[in-house]
Amino acid sequence: TPSPRPTPVDAGLMNRPAATPAPEHTVPASPAVPAATPSAMPSATPQPTPQAAPTVFTWPVQGDILTDYSLEVLSYNPTMDDWRTHDGLDIASGTEVKAAAAGTVTAVLQDAMMGTTVVVEHGGGLTSTYSNLASVPTVAVGDTVGAGSVLGSVGGTAIAESALASHLHFSMSLDGSTVDPLEYLPN
């Protein structure tokens, strides 16, 4: 008997993908098994989940405000003997400095003008910065802190504000732009 004629599989076309006709309509997935969507598909690189800004704030130190936040009106700086804007609050205190809200420490640095500084990221683009601290803070980059966690103590390391009494220079920013801390701190 003659051998049968070779089929495409027999002709070495086994590795070629078979053509699939496009469906005329799509059958919806059963409610018990939802259809996978591109956003539900796992990705090769995990994407960070944006954190919401905290809702609980506390004062970083208790004391009198020596210099208010002022970007619209110039305030006198006795150390520099000039008038300038002021991006935070100078709060008189000689005590421990606490995180104003929960977050993650993203920087511990020696700023040339503002001295020992700790920066905390709170989520939602909100950060708080604590300057003029004693030379050795009690936190490190990557530490998670809660509202009221001790970051360090007030020092005298800010040469730009050395003519003022012992104080904390406390500033906040939202998406990289300074904001008035009094908009967040409790009354």
What does this structure look like?
The protein is mostly beta strands. Helices cover 0% and strands 36% of the residues. The protein is built from no helices and 12 strands. Strands 1, 4, 6, 7, 8, 9, 11 and 12 form an 8-stranded antiparallel sheet that branches. A two-stranded antiparallel sheet has the order 2-3. It has a two-stranded antiparallel ribbon with strand order 5-10. A hairpin with a 3-residue loop joins β6 (103-111) and β7 (115-123). The radius of gyration is 30 Å and the shape is globular. The protein starts with 64 loop residues before the first strand and ends in an 8-residue tail after the last strand. The relative contact order is 0.19.
Helix content: under 10%
The parts where pLDDT drops under 50 for at least 5 residues are 1-43, 45-49
Mean pLDDT, to the nearest integer, reads 77
The structure class reads mainly beta
Order of helices and strands: EEEEEEEEEEEE
Number of helices: 0
Number of strands: 12
